[in-house]
Amino acid sequence: MTEIVKGKKEKHMQGFFGFLAFLAFVLFIVAMIKPNSKVIFWTQKKTRGMGCLYLVATIIFGIIAGAAGGSAANTVKTASSSSAQSQAASSDVSKAESSAAPASSAAPATKPYSATLKAGYYEIGTDIPTGTYDFKIVSGSGNVIDTGDDVNLMMGNDSSYQKSYKNAELTDGNTLILMQCSIKVTSKAANTSLKKRDNSSAKAITLSSGKYVAGKDFQPGYYDITLVSGSGNVICKDNELNAMMGSDASMYVKEYKNVQFKSDYTLDLEGPKVKLTPSK
Predict the structure, then answer these.
(1) How do residues 237-278 score in pLDDT, each as one tens digit?
(2) For the chain, how many structural domains are there in total?
(3) Rounded distance, CA 112 to CA 40, Å?
(4) Residue 120 to residues 142, 183, 189, 198, 224, Cα–Cα distance (Å)
(5) 46 lies in which domain range?
(6) What is the pTM of this model?
(7) Residue 131 to residue 117: CA distance in whole angstroms
(8) Do residues 187 and 228 share a domain?
(9) Rounded to an integer, what distance in angstroms lies between the CA atom of residue 249 and that of residue 119?
(10) Is there a single domain that holds both residue 73 and residue 129?
């Protein structure tokens, strides 16, 4: 800004000395001409001396005006260059800040999470959030398996079973399987983002004791299996389902969650009557 003001002052000086040079030149012409007859008095001493003086003044003022003009141009050019560099630097900083902004917002949101899970299959990232969990037995007894983390626990209230488990890493894409037991899972910082399951093909149906094929006897999809009556085994070798369902809580469970039946999977009901309801 100071350089621009300085340039303006030098430009004003250029104009001032230019005007003086022009005035001196005019006086030089006048000195050379006789006012009445308009004849040049170059040969007369009086007028010739004054004319020479005005001519010298014209040259001097012209040189000063030219020097001032060049200095002003350089000053303005320098100021313009500095301004352009400042704007470019400011633009680069803005771009850098803009490109860096998404990185801070990319971190997934986490919060405490707790839920009681019944016997069944729980896909991590879909049915429950990813995170580090503590397990605690609620009811029943059986295996607790994380398919991708080599965790295979025997949990129950009996002294021969584990009642709790600490710091289980449940990773997106793995499946937590609860066989014949219900547990409470707790995380201090679970990823709250859950994927939505496409289960539009599944249709509710009630099946009595017998053997049924998905895609033929019922629609493929994810189902919650709920006891209607009776007791016995509920088996599907294709998805490793091996449940004992009945009303006696000491031996059986009444519900299995999120059981996937792909086309041609066979469901074998050995005794109980159950209802298949599409999992949410």
Answers:
(1) 999 999 999 999 989 999 999 999 999 999 999 999 999 999
(2) 3
(3) 106
(4) 11, 11, 24, 18, 8
(5) 2-92
(6) 0.63
(7) 16
(8) no
(9) 12
(10) no
